[in-house]
Amino acid sequence: SRISQFALPEAPSMLRRLLSGQARGRGRVTVYEVGPRDGLQNEKQPVPLAAKIRLVDLLSASGLTKIEAGSFVSGKWVPQMASSDAVLGGISKKPGVVYAALTPNLRGFEAALAAGADEVAVFGAASEAFSRRNVNCDVEESLRRFKPVAEAALKAKVPLRGYVSCVLGCPYQGKVSHSAVTSVAHRLLELGCYEVSLGDTIGVGTPDTMSRLLESLLNSGLRPTHLAAHCHNTNGQALANISAALRFELRTIDASVAGLGGCPYAGPGASGNVATEAVVAMLHSNGYETGIDATKLGEAGDFIRGVLSQLKAEAAAKEETKK
Known about the structure:
Layout: H1 13-19, E1 30-33, H2 35-39, H3 49-61, E2 66-71, H4 84-90, E3 98-102, H5 106-115, E4 119-125, H6 128-135, H7 139-156, E5 160-165, H8 178-191, E6 195-200, H9 207-219, E7 227-231, H10 238-247, E8 252-255, H11 276-285, H12 294-322
Parallel strand pairs: 1-2, 1-8, 2-3, 3-4, 4-5, 5-6, 6-7
Helix pairs in contact: 3-4, 3-12, 4-5, 7-8, 9-10, 11-12
InterPro entries: Aldolase_TIM, HMG_CoA_lyase_AS, HMGL, PYR_CT
Pathway: Metabolic intermediate metabolism; (S)-3-hydroxy-3-methylglutaryl-CoA degradation; acetoacetate from (S)-3-hydroxy-3-methylglutaryl-CoA: step 1/1
EC number: 4.1.3.4
């Protein structure tokens, strides 16, 4: 394969073993469900609170163990997430399931904690241009802003996860260097994140570019257990890119039920989170364990597709009456 052809005389012995094809064992993969947050945040029509709660409960029943249920950001900027506290307060929590929330600042962290979030996340970027467009500051300042959240999470003994967007390309500046991604990933881990999710925000990655990025990250001293893959399917490459990540022994994969959503600030063509159903099917067909019931997962996908379809139909009908 292309991966096994890389010359890695300076690579760690584990990485040489992985890329030489000597470690081919299958194991358990954690599918990190981001649909209730990353999937719904882009929807133009307000999704009823009851539907959000029902979606999370259906996902819990499918066997998923990590579910990002909401985001504690300004309702002015992301109106769809304004009810995240009510979602966390209304779901039927299942033992063994971690319910997470995105918390970009201390105020959001405190609100998430009060609402019952089990885990929180911060969201950074490897692209300076994207950071300025998204949070109106450079990458360094965005990382400094996360420090109070990290300190509060450590004090409260709440697990902290980090996201890095634009790891394989940016809608505003184009290419993003491996060194930029590596720097942000290390900084997030130093802040206290237990895991860093690598986001191909605009879906421009290929198995080759994903592999080269992961090679750089692992050569920098990071371990596969530090990393998760968050692939968008804009160009139909998400599953192939996930397969590349699995070959590097990443064992956490982000996905969104029914393929919902993407980043609202990523620009045209950026939508296209990879569908959880497709990821689980691919993992199972390749011998990986997930603990997920594909039939029940499909029920969750059917439910939210039905809700969104009805909302769009109602919105279209209202527009017709205005004519």
